[in-house]
Predict the 3D structure of the following.
Amino acid sequence: MPAEIGTTLSSTGKTSPYPQYVEARLGFRNHWYPTLFSDELGEGEFKAFPILGDRLLLARVDGRVHAVRDRCLHHGVAFSRKIECYKKGTVSCWYHGFTFNLQTGVLCDIIANPRSNMIGRLRIDTFPVIESKGLIFVFMGDAEPPSLADDVPPTFLDEDIYVRGRRTEVQANWRIGCENGFDSTHIFIHKDSVLVKGNDLILPLGLVPTGKDAFEIVDEASGPKGVYDKLFEHCEPVFEGKIEGETVAHGNLGTTPVAYNISIWLPGVLRVTPWPGPTMTQYEWYVPIDENRHYYTQTIGKKIEQESDKSDFGRDFDNKWNEMALQGFNNDDIWAREAQQEYYRYDEAWTEEHLYEADRNISVWRQLAAKRNRGIQKREHIMKIGRPVE
């Protein structure tokens, strides 16, 4: 019987060339991740957000978003089970009235026992927050946060890029999401997509590698760490699919070239440009929820020359790209990831699989992620719910 997640690979006798990647079931620690879209959290609102096997409580106070662990340090219950806020800038536990400052995490009062010696001496964890491009990014970890630019793809933070997007919960591990997005030859599953015909895309059935230089690693001392897939420069596209010499399928010989620049970046975000049209770029995150689920945060960015261009792109996004691309096209990817999860929920899957020539970019991504991540998220990090005030 294959070992469930959480065990070693000893039952197979095989070892992985990227053990930290296999171990990162809950994602990588000490990285910036997108959580809610900014317009999902209004002034004075509280919302829970599960992430990396943990759960955050996000609150907006005087325009600023605060993030704390959604768990009281007393008995570990979630604040979000019944939000109680008696004073702006605080949250009170509904169970015994333990009250915490949202900015510092300090236990500032206990409503049901105001003379407790614990008051002022303990705190819950708080997490750094940055709002950018309509997303609320949270730094999940306890190290000194780097620049947000170190954890997002190039161009995403450019001043002239305007971003719209959506978020979907997918019943598959986050790593499956990354590899599905970065898999150059999975385009076969999209051959009947409404986007391909509706946007007249050039999309083959597959790609046959012609050389070994099909990727470029970005691993500088500062800045984001990632891998560029250069397969389109080192491949032969397959537009006519055959079985035993008989043609059974055709790619789409449209007029719109897309997706000739594909890259993936730590902690798990894909950039595809141009996509889904010649003047746009898609940036998509695979944010771990737990071992078996991830949030698929899809965004499309477009360069904006003047303010009126935002409303024009907004209408295009709402009327076309959201439904045709982020759903009509990417729903095939969601379906494929959830099909893979049945197998990859076992640790052994990462050593028993059979990768082929076109998967070298995925192997390189795994190696880079294992080498350059800032830490592995583990259950021991999640169980710590309180610490002394320094």
Summary: Helices lie at 19-23, 174-182, 194-198, 307-344, 349-352, 360-372, 379-383. Residues 1-10 have pLDDT under 50 and may be disordered. The first strand starts at residue 31 and ends at 37.
